[in-house]
Amino acid sequence: MSRSMYFDKRAPHAESAETVLRRLRTDPHSGLSTVEADARLSNGRNEIQTKHAYSGWRLFLRQFADPQMYLLLSATVLSLVVTLSKHGGAPWEALLILSVVLLNAILGFLQEDRAEKALEQLKVISPALSRVIRDGTAQDVLSATLVPGDILLLEEGNIVPADARIIEEDGIQVTEALLTGESLSVSKQPAPLPLTTPTADRTNMVFSGTGILSGHARAVVASTGPDTEVGHIASLLAKAEKDATALQNRLHGLSKQIAIGVFLTGSLCVITFILLLPEKTLDTLIEIALFGVSLGVAATPEALGTLVTLTLGFGVLRLARRGAIVRRLNVIDTLGATTVVMSDKTGTLTQNRIEVHSFFTAAETISSQSSTGPIHTGSPIEACLLSAALANAANYVREGTAFKFHGDPVDTALWMATTHRGVSPDAIEARFVRKWRFPFTSERKMLSVAVQDRHRPDAIFLYLKGAPESVLSRSTHEMAGKRVTEITATRRAELSAKIDALALEGWKIMALARRILPVSTDQPAKPELVESGLTLTGFVTLFDPPRTEASETIRQMTAAHIRTILVSGDHPKTAAAIARQLGIESGATVLTGAEIERSNDAELQQQLRGTTICARVTPADKLRVAQLLQRSGEVVAMTGDGVNDAPALKAADVGIAMGSGTEIAKDAADIVLTDDSLATILHAIREGRIMAANIQKAVMYLFTTNLSEVGTIFLAAVASMAMKQAAPAALPLTAAQILWLNLMTDVAPAIALALSPARPNVMEGSGHRNLKQILSKGSVYQILGNSLALTAVTLGAFFLVSGDLIHRRTMTLTVIALCQCAYALTLQSESASIFRYLSELRWLIPAIAWSIVAQVLIVSFAFTREVFGLSQLNWQDWLLCFLATSSVLVLSECRKFLLRRQRKHSNLGVEGTASIPTSRATSHAN
């Protein structure tokens, strides 16, 4: 018998309990037989299956699927062939290139963090054992062996092991925050509901993973494993694939462009040289092949991947100090491009706890946070406080002079508020003797307790709390100051209108009442016999308080052109009220889960353009909203803490989980906030913008230096051909020497540029618009101009210096290494003199010093000279190299001076986009 026979399109919440039992062929009193349960278990265990993860070696091999890797591997093979065919010596050049390939692969492997832990964590939700009725007796069985038709016995403290239909209940209260995001407990009842009832409103169902706060119930298992609501979330989570980040896409695009450009340029040059050769001997063809290798290595920014990894790594450390744990390294840059933050309400914008706001009666209102004042005996406020304390199912323990309460969130909040007003558990125990108690039920929607007051032993006092409409309908009188007045039809309408108005403002309201009974009254058979003719004492308003920093953070996000969308399982009116408290302006009507479900993608995309509130949403709704926002060009960050948030957390560009949330949410997210603070999210976005902008500057540096190396090699080869030298044999740099430049003398300055301090206005404007591309049109022009200048200086060193080829290459390598360091200094500002900000380059100066020392060391030792094909330099050679380098600084200072004069005359005293302000007060920009 297939699983679908037990879980089909007929939703159990829309059927009567008898119909569900009949369809599942089970008895509510004797349950299934062991034989029948074992037979049904063959259709699937009550477990959630996970997909197979990549193995380690496959993950490592995947690092080589990159155009730059293909280029370097090709250069390795070609260099090895050239070396062995030419002289058969040690293939140092090929080994160096291969070491770069392996280094990049290892770094990529280490930063890869795509382990699919979320689905494994979903298994942990289910408890190990469950209490069921089988063969007519109550017994404990493994939760994994539950099948549709099993009769569950649920009691206070249980975790529900499967989705089940309530058959009968006695005051059961369930916490479903893990599934629905709603912090208030939910009462359950067995009556059928409309077919279209949303999951959060299915009060005749209990769901896998939720907890029983109080009461007990009997329920029939309707669905298990992947068919449960948690199982549906698991399937959504498995399908919610995350696209590559913006930086990854841009870098991958650059890598493709570089590879194509290098291949076309190199091929054209090689073909041209072959055609121009008068004699095409094997040696000349080998030299041309060597030229192609050198050109390809020169054009490839090998340090780019390492640079990004290390730079993002520093960002991860800085964010960790601020309480944001980054689980995926490359997500930081996406943070900077964020345009929409989809924020879960409970535990993210609010504190995920219930507080009493105020008690109010017909005559007065008292805030729960006001200073303690005298409570007059017999006053409505005293009656309200006594109802809140006595009609209460929460437990408490004494901790020194204070009390700790636990149980239903509303009951604990009521106890804390009454204690704050001076009505402590000690006072209650000393004054009252409990006679009987009627627990809360979903039909009555109230809880009552009968007590005898030692101050008035001549009567029995019945104190109640419950839903306003239920208590009001059973109340005939109202306490108004020292008088008790009859509730007229007009007054009843006034009270109902006030209750509706408070609900619209987002408050949860409970009514409090009492009745005085004769002292001889015994416990009645039914609560309805005494829960009538009540005297309304007042009301209490409760709320889930917003986090203190939420409003200010939302305001700052709005100023940074980041839209905040409140995504909640609450009623639309409650969600709108919370949004108003937080400063989230609604430009359109609240979008509900029902509207999301019946709208097609085009309609929903149009609606989402002006929507800032989504209410009564399901996990599938959250996932769909996030994906449609992404299709509209938005960069979406999603916050959440519950199981219901996990699919959207994974699918969003940036998933941000609260540290106090479920493990499922944390494992599906990219970032986990240890302090649950929205301010930390804003800081993370700021960090992302800083790092993306700095990476752009570092990339510009790498491209300029690499392009100057390409220009040097190409022009030197052309000059050699023009001067009738042996083909392109007299290349100024070898492939190994270029690798040295790219990895040892380029990386440190590039990283220092990427770690530059932030400019003061980094959060102004749209980060998405500013970070769409790594290199702007203006940056490309600047790269071309600076690379031509560096090429001219390097070619001068190669052709004007006397000596053999090895000595000239040594001079050329040294000059270009020093010139690149000087260029890094000039890159800090477009127009400000280097002398204005030199003392503030706390990262760049040590990086340049390292590059200079590294170059000195490679020339000083015999082994490194042999590996890289270099000669020793004397002090005159070094002096000449430094003089050639100084020309870069002189030319830069002259250009900046002319630019400053031009701007002064045109009254444009504004730095360019790649510059920093020249004043010392704002010198840390960029």
What report would you give on this structure?
One of its GO terms (cellular component) is plasma membrane. Residues 11-84 form the Cation-transporting P-type ATPase N-terminal domain. Keywords: ATP-binding, Magnesium, Membrane, Metal-binding, Nucleotide-binding, Phosphoprotein, Translocase, Transmembrane, Transmembrane helix. By secondary structure, the chain is α+β, with helices and mostly antiparallel strands. It has five domains: 12-50 and 126-239, Calcium-transporting ATPase, cytoplasmic transduction domain A, CATH 2.70.150; 56-122; 303-316 and 691-757 and 770-903, Up-down Bundle (Calcium-transporting ATPase, transmembrane domain); 324-351 and 547-674, Rossmann fold, CATH 3.40.50; 355-543, Calcium-transporting ATPase, cytoplasmic domain N (3-Layer(aba) Sandwich). The chain contains 35 helices and 26 strands. The strands form four sheets. Strands 10, 11, 14, 15, 16, 17, 18, 19 and 20 form a nine-stranded mixed sheet that branches. Strands 8-26-25-24-9-21-23-22 form an eight-stranded mixed sheet, sandwiched between helices. Helix 10 runs parallel beside helix 27.
